[in-house]
Amino acid sequence: AELLQSLYGGNPSTGTAIARMFCLDDKSPPAASTNELVDALAEVLADLNLAEIVDPLVMALYYGSWLEAAKTLWASISSTDSGGYNFTVEAVTGVIQQLDDLKEVDHDNSLIALSAFCCVMPETQQGVDLAIVGDQIYDSILRAHNDHEFMDSNSAMVALGLLGCRYSRSLAMDRIGQILGILDGSETEAKSFCAMMSLAMIARSLASSLVTIGKADVASSAALKMIRHIFALLMDDLHLCLSASVPAMLTLIASLKTGKASPDLLESLQEIDDSTFFVADKSHLQTKRISVVLSVALPALSQSDPIFLKALSVVLAKCPWSIGKGYALASAYRTLADQNLLRVQDMETAYVAAVENANDSALYAASAISHLMPNNRDQKQEILSMIRHRVGSEDSGVSLDDILTACSSVGAVPLVSDLNGPNLHFETTKPALVATVEMLTEKATDQTKSRGCRDMSAIVLGILCCMRNPRQSAMAMQGSTYSSNLVKKVESTQKQVNDLPRPQEFTLLGLIVGHLREGLMDASSESLISEQKVRESTRNRAAISDLIRCIGRIPLPAPFATLAKSIVNQVDAKKEQLALKDACLDMLVSQIECARHSSSSNRSEFISLSLQIAKFPPPTFWSLFRSTDATDVRGLGRFMEATSVFIMNWPSGVVDEALVNLWAICAFDMLHQASFEHTTFFLNSLCITLRRCNDVGHGRKSSERKSSRSLLSPAALKSIHTLLTGQILTNLVHYVSGAGLAQNVSGNASASGVWSSYLACLQQIPASTLNDANFFILTTNQGSSFDEAIARILIIAHLAKCNGEYFGSKTDKHLMKAQLWIARKRVSSLTGEQLKSIRLAMLHLGRGGGGVTPNHETSSQECRKELIFQSFEIMLLHGLDSLALECLAVQCGSWCSNITARSSAIEAHEAASSMSRVIVRGDIGSATANGMLPGDKVSDIIGFFVRDLPWRLGLICREMGGTTSGLVANRCLRILQGVHVAGSVEHLEGYDLYNAALVALKQSATCCSEIEANGSAYTSFYVIEML
Length: 1027
Fold this sequence. Notes:
The chain has 52 helices and 4 strands. By secondary structure, the protein is mainly alpha-helical.
């Protein structure tokens, strides 16, 4: 802070003034008074010249500096330690009057200061209603704009944007509508940028409010519509910067306005060539402005349809790096990761692309993505090396992007990274922070560097000066009263110890609680005592853990819930503290499971604590229950397993929110730690809950039905169904389909266990419920991915196999729909991994691959005939490029495994083709699962089925009778004629698709002819060749 004060005093400028705003309170404790802060603000106000700011990064930080200065000013009057008086509305009006008096120094900045102060001011403080005060400031700012009192219209955009953030918190849509009308009406380019930044802040604030308030009422619907409208405006501005119109982007803009995505939105965007997104040199500055604005706004899309966030991510990925897209892309990937919509494979691909093009904003994107990746030590070291090389160089023209990246490598930058203000990353170490500060200090004080380089270094130092430790503020987000003051911590623990029950003396419980009191006091004061006492405290913690487990199995009074809450909420990554939390979780679950409690109110205390833990945001949750060396609290497994017990005790109105958040915790663990253990526990617990509800519904015993009739409310049951068929499937498809499926069948037991647990959950949901939710509809539209469609096919196969009664009489129809979906896919439109996964799905639908084994004896002849003829119709339309032939071959192999009337020729062929016999019997499933057959040999397996298709198809047609054989033979000849005219050759991985399909069609035409359908001709040209 002293350095920044010196830099500003020696060379006042807009850059050094912004830096000074970030650390307005440069006094050593105690903090500066309100009057001193206003004086400091008055000192820099005249040097904050908005017209001088050209770079959009500096403009974004200009917004952030006002918010930080306003927070400091508000803290000076709201803190209980400032002034020693009770909070009054007069204290607020006094500050407002002082800020209003600053108009004599700088009129526009004085109004912005009032708006920023209003933005951070809450609706109430210590029972004092401040809404009227906020409305008065709003009216004065709006009047100043309407009367053209602002010297620079950009200043009005800034002030109105800050006020819009305030009213977004309460979803005051009438006020926000007025502000949006003014911001949307700005016409000039410069004003448009300030307006866009203000719109982005409002969108993000609205989204944050929706998380807290919900989306059920009219105001929430209006807020969602407004968020989409803002993004439509921003994407329209980006589209105007392109050298040529892009129809798919126009479709995206139209979809944002209506709120309904077009069916092929994602596919159409993905198919666009990257060169289409060409930006002329004259538009590079404007596109960088839009990118910075999008970096602020993109998290707001988390509250809308995920397809919009995915669509914008696709657009940004295709744009050139030279337009500054790294800021927006980093924000998009961070938001996708927060929504558990980002695969590790996608992170790695994006990281490599950013590092390869590490110019301008690309290095910033690479740094941000590296913090999202699991096991990212090597990536972080690579980024730090690049930062030191580029920022630490002697070049006088170090880019502003690289300087900001140096800051973002140790913490979140306000507005560009995190609207809530600067925070250090959890994993940032003191040496890394010190090295960054020294490197930036050198740049800020070196007069040989450019003015822009020195100013940006000073601003970044200001940000670092006010960065907070996230571990100290994690529980503040949850309304915790945790204080970093060690004395207050001891006083708090003393109160908790005093609140513990006092059992009768000379009893076992009395002895245990007595030891518990002593141990807690010693453990809580370890930072105030000698090293020897610290070692004793460590032993005490271990003893306390054992004591808590001892008494945890018996009914305990409410104060023990308070004790457990205190211990759980301590942000302490030491193994001894984790052991203590482990014991508390064990006690918590035991108390809720306990059949007898000392009173009903005590039960509610423990239930309330379980609900609080279930609602922790995933990063906070794992910071509380995981040590720095990735050691988990063992009790977490039991906590996740007990979800079935919690659901029965939680109020039905909160079950949905709690389960969604618990799943987010599991998905976060899978994504960032590649750990599946807790996810399996959670899914198994949901399965138990659903099974119990089904048992009650079926009414095994009248006594059981009477005692368990109210196990779960309809709303809670619907919440479980919605979660299983929605977000859980979306997250799991990355681990069980596509490339994930290929890895899974090669021995990924952890992911396989999660998938098996998920399938077990779906078995407990009635087929009618899944049908009503359109769960079995296979499409890649409306945001559904290819992987998700494959996952649904695997689910259909599993449900048809595991329970022959699940689909009832509609089993064949469900299977046929899945098979025809695969048949319509064109080989030329699939990637290698997609082709591999779709072939594995074929085997699951057929007899092979360990998949479905439907009741073929009762399978209707109509379904078989329809599948055969529709497969040939698809081949008539798309030729040999479709997968219809492969899919039909696999299914015919499955059908033939149940036909007993076989000719000697068929028996001779099966004797000659042992691999085909193994596949037809279905043994290939276990072979693949045990790693005996690698996943990349799937194409060879399909090749066996294609080779054996002719004689099997002839046999099936003969069984069907009538004119079936002749019709099939006719279609084979028509397809062959079409292929001959086209003259195309398709070559696929593993075997020649064209040649294999051509041979199969020729032989099928012969085997299915009316004369030779009995199989007599088969021996002459096929079996003899094999033998």
